[in-house]
Amino acid sequence: MSYRRDPFAVDEWYHCFTRGIDKRTTFESEDDCHRFIQLLYLANDTKPISRDNFYYRSHKDILLLPKNQPIVSIGGYCLMNTHYHLLLREIVENGISRFMQKVGTGYSMYFNAKNQRIGNVFVKPFRSKHVANDIYLRHVPQYIHLNPAEIYEPGWKKGIVANMSALEKRLIDYPFSSLADYHGTIRPERAILDFASFDLLSSGLPKLSKVLKGAADYYADVDRVLNPRGVASRID
User: Fold this and answer.
1) Is the residue at 234 inside a domain?
2) How many structural domains does the chain have?
3) What is this structure's pTM?
């Protein structure tokens, strides 16, 4: 799986990710996470995002709003305090770039207004890895879902997990990733995921315990991209 240097290709999957500028905390509260999740839903449309969608509506009601036509397929996601990860498939030309721009702009406007600041919130450009074969496609959703493991088992990337069963339960209960949807939890956030892609990915999803080693190696590479030393090569 290589970093993208060419334009996104229609019908291809990509792991897209970025972090807060200056490594700052970008999701400071549950409300922040909910706003970003709402944007994942609303930005995936040919229509522009209307700020009126957020007024006087609950989180659940926003995720029930009608949409016109999606521009990407969303196969999974995870939010952490300082960064986020998305699994996306390009379904219309330039769809991923448009989607990421809409999400990033929408969240930056919200975050800056709330915190009385100006400027970028996330590092630009966002990074992406092409999911080039079916084997990786089965694993990447779980790699993404394993991100919160660092909260509960800080040594997991070194292969140190005190209680794998407890970790799996905590990851399923983590409210700001799509893992709960893969485990059949009924919740409004399920609307973010593309139904056809969800069925495809969930049919062969490996257990979290089976992908720990691969995920640790995978994120060692991702960490080098998110936190480069010296001059980094352009990958997006």
Assistant:
1) no
2) 1
3) 0.90
Query: Which pLDDT score is estimated for 225?
Result: 67
**195 part of a folded domain:** yes
Per-residue pLDDT tens digits for 105-127? 999 999 999 999 998 999 988 99
Answer yes or no: are the C-beta atoms of 130 and 4 closer than 8 Å. Answer: yes
What does residue 42 show for φ and ψ, rounded to 5 degrees? -75, -30
CB neighbour list of residue 22: distance below 8 Å, 6 or more residues apart: none
Q: Name the residue type at position 73.
A: S
DSSP string, the chain: --B--S---TT-EEEEEEEBGGG--S--SHHHHHHHHHHHHHSSSSSPPPGGGGTT--HHHHTT---S--SEEEEEEEE-SSEEEEEEEE-STTHHHHHHHHHHHHHHHHHHHHHT--S-SB-SSPEEEEE-SHHHHHHHHHHHHTTTHHHH-TTGGGT--S-HHHHHHHHHH-TTBSHHHHTT---GGGGGS-HHHHHHHHTTPPPGGGSHHHHHHHHHHHHHHHS-SSSPPP--
- Whether 1 is in a domain gets the answer no
> Quick one: pLDDT band at residue 4, thresholds 50, 70, 90?
very low
* Domain range enclosing 148: 13-226
pLDDT exceeds 80 at position 223: no
The highest-confidence range among 150-159, 184-193, 207-216, by mean pLDDT, is 184-193
**Six-digit token string for 113:** 């207004």
Cα separations in angstroms, 43 against 37, 55, 139, 169: 10, 16, 26, 30
Tell me the CATH number at 103: 3.30.70.1290
